[in-house]
Amino acid sequence: MSSDDEAEEYLFKIVIIGDSAVGKSNLLSRYSRNEFNMHSKATIGVEFQTQSMEIEGKEVKAQIWDTAGQERFRAVTSAYYRGAVGALLVYDITRRTTFDSIGRWLDELTTHSDTTAARMLVGNKKDLDDIRSISIEEGKSLAEEHGLFFMETSAKDSTNVKTAFEMVIKEIYSSVSRKVLNSDSYKAQLSLNRVSLVEDEKKQNQGLSSCCSR
Amino acid sequence: MMFMRRSTQSELDAFYPVRPECHDSVPKSRFKLKTGKTLSARRWRASFSEEGQLDIAKVLRRIQRGGVHPSIRGAVWEFLLGCYSPNSTFDDRSLIRQRRREQYDELKAECQKMVPVIGSGKFLTTPIVTDDGQPIDDVPGPHGSQQGSSDPAFEKKVIQWKQVLPQIGLDVVRTDQPLMFYQTETNQAKLWNILSIYAWVDSDISYVQGMNDICSPMVILLENEADAYWCFERAMRRLRDNFKTTSTSIGVQARLSTLSTIIKVVDPKLHQHLEELDGGEYLFAFRMLMVLFRREFSFMDSLYLWELMKIGYS
């Protein structure tokens, strides 16, 4: 948690969006804690987790925002798209309506955040192959149509979860490093998303974590 | 003494049993029965006059000191939530109860006419109308009668309500799953019925995720579905503003800003720290305030907390 080499750190904000019960929270918990909860509950509002990976010897942190799927929450959740540089648009391969909604989620994302450097279409619940209603080809072709990465995952059996997140993070990284080379303003804009890193040191003195996890 | 303590503990464990495979994943309860402090069944019965008027002040003092014994929780909650006035008599209440049950049956029948699954012991998780309101007919068989109404506002209300029903279903299957109570489809359907009927009656709020967490304890505590409905309806009178959504905000955010104002005064350093973390939006408290700490504590402990709060914000 030292901020000595803070200049070398990257913090990317990534959002996970999609209809209710497609498995957004379990994708995140599988990636960040290698956990899957059979009894997970509907997400209320927004929650986030931070997960790090190393790229080219640099520590890259992803702050991943998990959102409630219900349309009624969009007023709130869309506010948190701001500054997102990556997005996972998730559907459930066994429920067509969740696939049909992807277009709407894309519009939502485009309206509220024009900064996303990497977007991935994710067909989750790959383990339920025998009751699938969206073929891989269909997923692929929708992804191609909108210029999205595509992957089918299973938060339950871990298939492709890490790969999906890391692919998004790597793409952001490479896109950012390209831009950083030739744009100072972009760099400045990005540093706005880095505020929380600086504050890590103070945390212990102020006892925030103890008040929440007692 | 030791014996007493152990026996009250096992007494407590008998309430709200958890599925064995979930024991490790649910928060541990810290609520303890305190002899002489917790509102017991005996004390509760002794708090009524001969005609049935309740000494509510005395009851509340006891609840503050040691909570409510789970065996009488449903009955106590009906008073805490304001379903019945403490000044009412036994006779008054049995009349009111009967009337309210009839009223609930009428509401249920009205909804059932539009969507026959309501009240059938089953519930929906898949859409029955499309985004533009056309019925989805993948299952041949009896359908809810189209109201044949020429009133477009009414038609719109029906369609919006039908659209939210599968959302309720998707959340019902994910509500308090570790509790044995929700292992049966019948009990899940009760929760679904109540939320669905509420969504019809209070169409401004309809259904918002989180209302399931508020409603679930009522279904467990009150065996009669109609009684549980009216408890939920009472709780929502106090909480519904939290769930009110506009195109730019959701009601609970007003509470977050109140919280921020308070913390700013009582602990400016903490406030400053939180400000730096999430721009002072107090987002971390969103869920806490929306579902009244249901997700932060065990089932037992959150009910105790609600009782101390006189259930919701008063």
Number of beta-strand segments of chain A: 6
Helix/strand/pairing class of chain A, anyone? alpha/beta
Helix content of chain B: 40-55%
What is the number of domains of chain A? 1
Instruction: Give, in order, the helices and strands of chain B.
Output: HHHHHHHHHHHHH
Q: Low-confidence runs of chain A (pLDDT<50, min 5 residues)?
A: 1-6, 192-214
Average predicted local confidence, pLDDT of chain A: 83
H/I helix tally of chain B: 13
- Total helical segments of chain A: 10
> Globular, elongated, flat, extended or rod-shaped: what is the shape of chain A?
globular
| CATH-defined topology of the domain at 100-242 in chain B | Helicase, Ruva Protein, domain 3
What is the structure about, briefly put?
Chain A has 214 residues and is an alpha/beta fold. Helix content of chain A is 40%, strand content 22%. Chain A has a single domain (3-206), classed as Rossmann fold (3-Layer(aba) Sandwich), CATH 3.40.50.
Overview of the structural elements:
- The complex is a heterodimer of chains A (214) and B (314).
- By secondary structure, chain A is an alpha/beta fold.
- Chain A has a single domain (3-206), classed as 3-Layer(aba) Sandwich (Rossmann fold).
- Chain A is 40% helix and 22% strand.
- Chain A has ten helices and six strands, in the order E-H-E-E-H-E-H-H-E-H-E-H-H-H-H-H.
- In chain A, strands 2-3-1-4-5-6 form a six-stranded mixed sheet, with helices on both faces.
- In chain A, strand 5 (118-124), helix 5 (136-146) and strand 6 form a beta-alpha-beta unit.
- Chain B is mainly alpha-helical and 314 residues long.
- Chain B contains 13 helices and no strands.
- Chain B has helices at residues 2-13, 41-46, 56-66, 73-80, 90-114, 152-172, 185-201, 211-221, 225-239, 252-266, 268-278, 286-290, 299-308.
- The longest helix of chain B is centred in the N-terminal third of the chain and has 25 residues, at 90-114.
- The radius of gyration of chain B is 21 Å and the shape is globular.
- The two termini of chain B are 38 Å apart.
- The model of chain B has no long low-confidence stretch (mean pLDDT 91).
